[in-house]
Fold this sequence. Notes:
By secondary structure, the chain is of the alpha/beta class. The chain has a single domain (about 5-355), classed as Aldolase class I (TIM Barrel, Alpha-Beta Barrel), CATH 3.20.20. It contains twelve helices and eight strands. It has an eight-stranded mixed beta sheet with strand order 6-5-4-3-2-1-7-8. β5, α6 (about 180-190) and β6 (about 195-200) form a beta-alpha-beta unit. The two termini are about 25 Å apart.
Amino acid sequence: MYPFNWKKSVKVVRILAWAYLRHRVKRTPLWGHLYVTRKCNLRCGYCFFRDPKKRDLSTDEIRAVLDRMHAMGISFLAFHGGEPTIRKDFDAIVRHAHDVGFFTYLNTNGTMLTPEYIDRLGEAGVDLINMSVDSVVEFEHSGKDLMHGKKVLEDLLEARERHGFEITVNFVLNNRNIEVARQTLELMHSYRIPISVGFIVKHLFHDEQEPSLFFRTEAEKRRLFEVLDEIIVMRRRGMNIIEPTRYFEDLKRFVNHELEWECMAGRDSIGIDTLGELKFCGTLPTEDVSIFDLERLDTRVLHRWRKDKYGNCHERCVTNCRYVTYYYYKHPLRFVLEMAWFRRAVRSIRDRLSTLLGRPPRLGPSVPVRI
């Protein structure tokens, strides 16, 4: 990806570089996921995180969890829910994480983000806000569309100039938004927002997700493959998509039950659920072990623990965050070569040479009219 805020990019590289060194030497996780609540104001048809019955920790208790995570070697932190911004004290949580030294990453549906709330988060030191957008038109299966969220996205873009945080958009590709996928991605690209393209996955331990969102028939799978090929072309032409091209090629292999890959949950990162319990992955159950019960976070031990308990769960799941980490580990040079900012630099040099030689430069992706 190529970001809007290069200072944040430098911060990410610095923090992840140290995290990687600690990971290789002391076997600590590269990053952590903290679920500050499981409550949510939406009922997305594909979601498996929402649990309104699960209790939340107090502000001080979460501060203690953050201190413990940082002391155990985690410095890159993603906030999850439910919907984190439902908490009235969430800006205080972000401020403490920032003061401790975390790079702070917020996953949000955006529905609670008023201009005042966004400013509070910016002042608290949030580094990156990842907003879910599933469609440019009304999308009843999640409510996370630009018919409801366009004003929030514009407020985020305006606040980005003042506070310097980065914005990304998460788009979950499914059978009900596939026909607006290209239009949605092109619009986000015109906003200069990096785009993360997720893929709907089946939760391994409950069946409450809406069946119509999945690609079940051969015709639906053929249409999926056509759209994945379109996304690959858009990415190669410079669209600011975070996932590597290989991810979209491997999604087709996954749908055909031909994909061989290794999930690194427990090795690359850990999750901490709302009461401080260990959680290897969002698609797996919460463990009956608190972070305060662990003497240290040895990723070799955690990875073996997850594998022994859940086996080859990755054969039925291919979340984009897990896949990208796997890809980085297995193909570090290829990952760098496929990053959008690198390809943009190469394309810029190529176009300048073409101009000097009197040849017309190649055209990139079209920029759509904003809605």
